[in-house]
Amino acid sequence: MAVKKYKPTTPARRKASVADFSNLSKKRPEKSLIIKKKRSGGRGMKGNITVRHIGGGSKRFVRIIDFIQNKFDIPAKVASIEYDPNRNARIALLHYKDGEKRYIIAPIDLKTGEEVITSKKRVEIKSGNRMPLSIIPLGLLVHNVELNPGQGGKIVRSAGAWAKLQAVEDDMAQLRLPSTEIRKVPAKAMASIGQVSNPDDMHVRLGKAGRTRHLGIKPTVRGKAMNPVDHPHGGGEGQNPIGLKNPKTPWGKPALGVKTRAKGKYSDKLIVKRRKKRKK
Fold first, then answer.
1. C-alpha distances in angstroms, 42 versus 36, 145, 264?
2. The domain 3-201 is classified under which CATH number: 3.90.960.10, 2.40.50.140, 2.40.128.50, 2.60.120.200?
3. Which positions of the chain have pLDDT values less than 70?
């Protein structure tokens, strides 16, 4: 997939780019697999704002995605590759031999008309097929990986994401995740072969405030532009620094680059190698 640019007829058009939708199927979403999206506006059960900068946005249906894929040894035909407004990856509509229809996350090489299958036995090694990690050849890229067998895919589901199967020892498999972290996962956990579709999503530039509002994201005001009563960074005359040793949240807690992972978490023993620090 490519990223499309338009003639710079306005300042916003000059900077903006959009994803190329030419390879998607021109059809409406499957009616039996959509539900209405409930909107919170960032407010909790008491009506107070609990998450800031949420509101508005285009109306959209939620596509019911099958992350478990528990129809074993039943071939399914890819009826269409579709756009999902709730995620950055593309989705595929599967028609199973028994007549059932389900949506899955589409891998990068999956095309309309192909067949995919989920099995606990060794099947053909191709994008979209799903097997336990214990029988997938080492070095292959996988996505939609389970953390616990039978739970359904929990990790490696966003556009362009992949994990590399590095080793299988006893009842555990080692995966190199998109964050460069190497983590142990049960060897019986299921994973789909291939890289998630739409890897160029990271290169799309929104270009103007309106497109951000269409996504349901409200404007964000800088802390240093506020008054001291409203934010720890607030106050001062003109372009002043924040006046603190480290940045803080509006509620006075450390922000930006602070470790938020709980110490002594149960899954620490499953992490073989921590992710690399990003170079600034």
1. 17, 30, 31
2. 2.40.50.140
3. 1, 278-280
